[in-house]
Amino acid sequence: MxxxxxxxxxxxxxxxxxxxxxxxxxxxxxxxGRGQPxxxxxxxxxxxxxxxxxxxxxxxxxxxxxxxxxLVAFGALLAVTPSVGNARQLAKAQATxxxxxxxxxxxxxxxxxxxxxTEDHRFYSEPGIDVFAIGRVAAGYLTGGGDQGGATxxxxxxxxxxxxxxSGLKVEAEQVALAIKLDMTYTKKQILRMYAGVVxxxxxxxxxxxxxxxxxxxxxxxxxxxxxxxLAGLVQGPTADxxxxxxxxxxxxxxxxxxxxxATGVLxxxxxxxxxxxxxxxxxxxxxxxxxx
Length: 293
Hints:
Elements: E1 2-3, E2 9-10, E3 24-25, E4 31-33, E5 36-37, H1 49-80, H2 87-97, H3 109-119, H4 131-142, H5 153-162, H6 169-185, H7 188-198, H8 208-216, H9 225-232, H10 247-263, H11 269-276, H12 280-283
Antiparallel strand pairs: 1-2, 3-4, 4-5
Helix pairs in contact: 2-7, 3-9, 3-10, 5-6, 5-7, 9-10, 10-11
């Protein structure tokens, strides 16, 4: 006979076992008190799959809402910006003010390659804007880094034709919308021709034809690689990089453009080195003379 608690007896074979006062021992040494269950999470505990799915679902919904909001805002921006159907008329008006012929000659391959390589290497594939550059600029504003550059040739043309003399984040947003409209309205060749016809190259030269004749005494079709690279390097800082008044900075910009031509596979390193070796004095030997070629 087995004695139970308080001296009570239990028949043989009765599985009754005395219970300790205050609770029972749980798994892994955990104890349960009266009405106060205690549980320790095992090492390496991970959230349940259901909780993970709920977090992912909320994240996806937030991103979709953010994208839809951006699309609505961009659609509104497209609606309030003007049509670009008059872009060629505006380009002609600017050329007339600067005593330049419009439309000027077709943009030669060497200058086009130099300009695209240094200013907008995705020009032939982008829809008027470079989404990677826009993301970089947005990140710069958010982090306090300011404008990181990256305006496409479309955006630069929009600035010259539609927002000249204005600045700020709102104006840059307008230029983005106008750039997309320009891409939807004109061919790549037309954009390059309009751009080359109105952009300033320093030393009083507006348009590629005037700059090519004024600096080198040759028409655009006769530009060599070093001459084309030099002119393409001027569009960002036409006064500061003027080869007549600031030859050192002009050559530095030319070297940058030649480097971009190598990086984009247009020139070999040997070709770029040979172009950079041409003295600036040789290129400017016929500066200010009548245009030939």
